[in-house]
Design goal:
By secondary structure, this protein is mainly beta. Helix content is 2%, strand content 56%.
């Protein structure tokens, strides 16, 4: 029952080159405009320079044209472009051609920027690229609010670093807070992780992320490696991840599906966990998955329902040679009236604890009101075993031994040589041992001084049941039922082979890998007579 919730899918952690094109010296004298700072409450462009400057009146408004190696400064903000048109009264500047806006470590590059001096807002269009030195954002257009250190993108964007790429239809990024708010088919692609959601919030400083709406997460590989034959898929409506604390919380009827392909590639083993709430913790050598409320678990030849389930995996300590002494130890605990099905056996009690190493279950323990009901595959009758507690021992894939006690009771239905019903035996004692090979009883032992009664077929009580008997096959989770959602079925249909790789992302805005330094002056404006 190995399951590992990997929710390390939102790390933005690599530096991106800041953008600052070089400026070639001009052979002509520089033309400049210096503003007198007569009103300290109205921020204005303090200096604008270019290879040439002209001034004229258009539609009753005074404008200035700067051509070639245009540079401007306002407080800590620096502007560069090939060509600029400045509206004096409006305190606005239109810049085109290799536009670069630099402010306190932020670099905004675009084909065109319309800059509002009064509000310190830059509206960028064409090959927009924003970098804060750690994250780069690519988009066809955007608005940058300098005082807020915030950029808004409404026509699609891509966030990139050396480890991940995130795309969305719209969103905002705060360069000082290192925070992103994305919405509209958000997709994240990393080396071993793929994410989709309707919206995503990411706080880079605290490494906290929140995904909302139609959340889908895919993790390639198991707990320790990138084995492409293991896939973990998560479907939910809300997912919270705190990378520093190693904590993830999942809400909105989460469904976890783990797919494991065998060595021949011919078969895929599936593990499914469904609940109303999931929580995953990863700290040092401990990995824990908690499922709460209406929990259902399904795996081949094994299923369970419970109010809550806790899965823990402990890494084995290294020996003196630095190698692992044993496979990781795993334990699954089921609480508040759980029912566990193993093959044809139904096991119930107040709590159930299952232990194993690696992916192999080797024992289970049932505390209080332990009950085993095993269906006879020939007669369809139900063998019964009960006791205050129960220990189950698993040997390989087919041999199971159940030890019940104290106050053990059992009902065993017999068959004759022709596999016809032949009465039943009811026995009680301090301890009872049932041994099964596959689904067939192989041995029944009663240490001490048991008390028993044999009932012939004609004298068999109807119904013949121990106190506390419950046979509930209708509650047993099935793969078909748990995976019935169309969104889940469409995803699983693409996993004919698990080494096919993650889904491809939609095309992102064309990146601008380098900032060209060549300057092509715009046409000179027509001067008014």
């Amino acid at each position: 029952m190995s399951a590992r919730l990997w929710l390390s899918w939102l790390i933005l952690a690599a530096g991106i080159l800041g953008l600052r094109p070089s400026v070639e010296p001009s052979p002509w004298p520089r033309a400049s405009y210096v503003a007198a700072d007569t009103d300290s409450t109205a921020p204005r462009m303090t200096i604008v320079t270019g290879d040439s400057l002209s001034q004229q009146e258009e539609n009753g408004e005074l404008v200035q044209y700067y051509i070639g190696h245009v540079e401007g400064m306002q407080d800590s903000t620096e502007l560069r472009a090939d060509w600029a048109k400045r509206f004096i009264a409006r305190k606005q500047v239109l810049l085109t051609g290799h536009v670069l806006l630099i402010d306190k470590g932020d670099s905004l590059y675009a084909d065109t920027v319309f800059y509002d001096e009064l509000n310190k807002i830059g509206r960028a269009l064409g090959h927009v690229r924003l970098s804060d030195g750690e994250v780069v954002v690519l988009a066809p257009s955007g608005i940058y609010f300098i005082d807020e250190k915030r950029a808004r993108f409404s026509e699609g964007l891509t966030l990139k670093d050396s480890t991940a790429v995130i795309t969305s239809r719209r969103g905002s990024y705060w360069t000082q807070e290192k925070r992103a708010e994305l919405e509209g088919v958000v997709r994240l692609q990393a080396e071993r992780t793929y994410l989709e959601a309707d919206s995503l919030s990411y706080f880079r400083k605290t490494e906290v992320s929140i995904a909302r709406g139609n959340v889908f997460i895919e993790r390639i590989g198991g707990e320790d490696d990138a084995d492409s034959t293991i896939r973990t898929l998560l479907f939910s409506q809300w997912a919270y991840n705190d990378e520093k604390a190693g904590l993830s919380r999942i809400r909105g009827h989460p469904l976890l599906v783990q797919l494991r392909q065998d060595s021949t590639g011919a078969d895929v083993d599936t593990l499914v966990i469904k609940a109303l709430y999931l929580e995953a913790i990863e700290r040092d050598s401990l990995r824990r998955l908690v499922a709460v409320d209406s929990v259902q678990v399904w795996q081949r030849d094994l299923a369970a329902v419970a109010d809550s389930v806790v899965y823990e995996r402990f890494e084995a300590p290294a020996d003196t040679l630095g190698t692992l002494a044993r496979e990781p130890f795993e334990e699954t605990r089921l609480y508040r009236g759980p029912i566990l099905w193993v093959g044809q056996a139904q096991i119930s009690g107040d709590t159930i604890r299952v232990k194993g190493r690696g992916s192999n279950v080797d024992s289970l323990f049932v505390r209080q009101r332990a009950f085993v009901a095993q269906r006879d595959t020939v007669t369809e009758r139900i063998h019964q075993l009960k006791g205050r507690h129960l220990v189950g021992i698993f040997e390989g894939d087919s041999i199971r031994t159940f030890i019940a006690g104290p106050n053990a009771e059992t009902i065993y239905f017999r068959r004759d040589e022709e596999d016809q019903p032949a009465g039943a035996l009811q026995v009680s004692g301090d301890q009872a041992i049932f041994r099964f090979r596959g689904d067939e009883p192989e041995e029944i032992l009663f240490p001490g001084e048991p008390r028993g009664t044999y009932y012939s077929e004609s004298l068999l009580p109807d119904p013949f049941q121990l106190d506390g008997f419950r046979w509930l096959p209708e509650l047993r989770p099935t793969k078909t039922f748990l995976l019935r959602d169309q969104r889940v079925l469409q995803r699983l249909a693409s996993y004919a082979r698990l080494d096919a790789g993650p889904p491809a992302m939609e095309a992102e805005p064309a990146p601008v890998d380098t900032v060209k330094t060549e300057r092509t002056p715009a046409p000179r404006p027509h001067k008014s007579p």
